[in-house]
Specification:
Blueprint lengths: L1 E9 L6 E4 L1 E5 L3 E2 L11 E5 H11 L12 E4 L10 E4 L2 E8 L5 H5 L3 H5 L7 E5 L3 E4 L3 E4 L3
Length: about 140
């Protein structure tokens, strides 16, 4: 079983990622107040272990906020999980695909884009399936089919 470690909300496209202790989720939209609403990328998720692995390859302890994901989770592997449902507390998120690292990652640190490529290292994105809240410390696990 995993844990929700951090929550970030982006107030504007390409804007800063603001840290929060909790966030309200809106079904079919994403996190309330986040610049990206609706569509397929309603919420983005980064695995702490994959981020740590990329940073170790680079020899640099970078802040995971730099990945620009909404949720940082630990104890959960996101690789090859398309169409699975991730439970964050009582929040259901259907994983729709891999968040591939873009060239902006190399603006953060040279080589970061390549370091994040293996095994869905850039994380996953998905759609929010219900209303409610998520909070740091929530349990994270896969819904059994």
């Amino acid at each position: 079983m995993g844990r929700l470690e951090r929550i970030w909300i982006k107030r504007a496209h390409r804007g800063p990622m603001d840290g929060h202790q909790w966030a309200r989720r809106v079904a079919g939209r994403g996190l309330d107040g986040n610049a990206d609403q609706g569509g397929r990328r309603q919420v983005t998720i980064l695995a702490r272990e994959r981020w740590a692995s990329a940073c170790a390859k680079l020899g640099e302890p970078l802040d995971p906020r730099e990945r620009r994901a909404n949720l940082l989770v630990s104890g959960i592997d996101l690789a090859e999980t398309r169409d699975r449902v991730l439970l964050v507390g009582d929040c259901r998120i259907r994983i729709l695909g891999e968040t591939k690292p873009c060239a902006r990652m190399d603006d953060v640190f040279p080589g970061l884009q390549e370091a994040l490529r293996p095994a869905w290292g850039g994380g996953a994105y998905g759609e929010v399936l219900g209303e409610g809240e998520v909070a740091i410390g929530d349990q994270v696990r896969w819904e059994e089919s």
